[in-house]
Amino acid sequence: MQQTPQSRDIWTHGGGWPLPDLLRSAFASLLLLGEQQRAAYFASPWITDFELFDNRFRDYAALFPRRADEPWIRFSDYLVALSHKIEVRIITTDNDRSEAFANIPVLKTAERLLFRSSASKFHEKGILAPLFYIEGSMNITNHGVRVRGEKVIYHSGSGKDVSGKIAGAYLEFDRHWKTLA
Questions:
Q1: Which of 20, 163, 175, 179 has the greatest CB tally within 10 Å of its CB?
Q2: Residue 19: predicted pLDDT
């Protein structure tokens, strides 16, 4: 019996759709979950808003009823929707781009969406959720997702290797989050 791989390397080589497609699929899966105990982490030295879900044909209208008629669902809209299901923790650094993102009005009013700033030497990049862990070179920006050549590793599944990887990442992200309080 052949075992399904539980981690995948994604190389973008300066753009393309593999990374945005991966993010849309992984992120949409979180919106289909019920309430979760574990927070979702989004960690990147630079974070900006960008068009994430192409909704021109209403493909994502059911996941975003308040944005059903919008042609694009932005990353900020996604985070707000996710914060209704799970606590969202964003770790970034103090810089103009991340600060502008944190000050988007819809993000400032979301109840379970929290920001913490790390020291300027912080360079960790990852997205951690109960179902998956995405790690690699990608900043959570339009350029990181769509333009630059990036490599990320997507870990998902129920095997002990992936479960251990996700558990270990939660230990590190939780520890770092507490140090920023």
A1: 20
A2: 87
Q: Specify the amino acid at residue 156.
A: S
pTM of the predicted protein model? 0.93
**Residue 147 domain-assigned?**
yes
CATH classification of the domain holding 32:
3.30.870.10
Which DSSP symbol is given to 3? P
Q: How far is CA 107 from CA 76, 77, 134, 159, 162, in A?
A: 7, 8, 22, 35, 31
Query: Mind listing the pLDDT tens digit for each residue in 96-128?
Result: 999 999 999 999 999 999 999 998 889 999 999
Return the structure tokens found at 117. Answer: 């700033």
Residue showing tokens 């209704």: 84
| pLDDT higher than 50, residue 79 | yes
Whole-angstrom distance, CA of residue 14 vs CA of residue 4: 28
DSSP bridge pairs for 43: 91, 126
